[in-house]
Amino acid sequence: MRYLMTTKATDTAPDEALFAEMGRFIEELSAAGVLLATGGLEPGGILVTSSGEEITVTDGPFAEAKEAVAGFALIEVRSKEEAIELARRFRRIVGDGESVVQQVFGP
């Protein structure tokens, strides 16, 4: 099963120790074949909306910085419980904050 884990931005700036620990975590998941993709997201973005025949494109940002998704990881695991455990490990590394885990449907 595939899961998308997203995390919101925080006011805490990462330090070298955090980067090192996160690097080890990413290497472990990559070596195990669990991590399919990971990355940070720009704070703004582009909103594309449709209503009938009308398509509107609006430049961001759209949410307060603390509400914006700052990064993601796409993982492939055997169960929801395994995805939750990886999210718990991630939160232990990065500290206080909020992440969302959602199952990805499709191939």
TrEMBL record:
Domain YCII-related: 1-90
InterPro entries assigned: Dimeric_a/b-barrel (IPR011008), YCII (IPR005545)
Cited Pfam families: YCII (PF03795)
Top-rank taxon, per record: Bacteria
Membership in a protein family: Belongs to the YciI family.
Protein name: YCII-related domain-containing protein
Organism: Kitasatospora indigofera
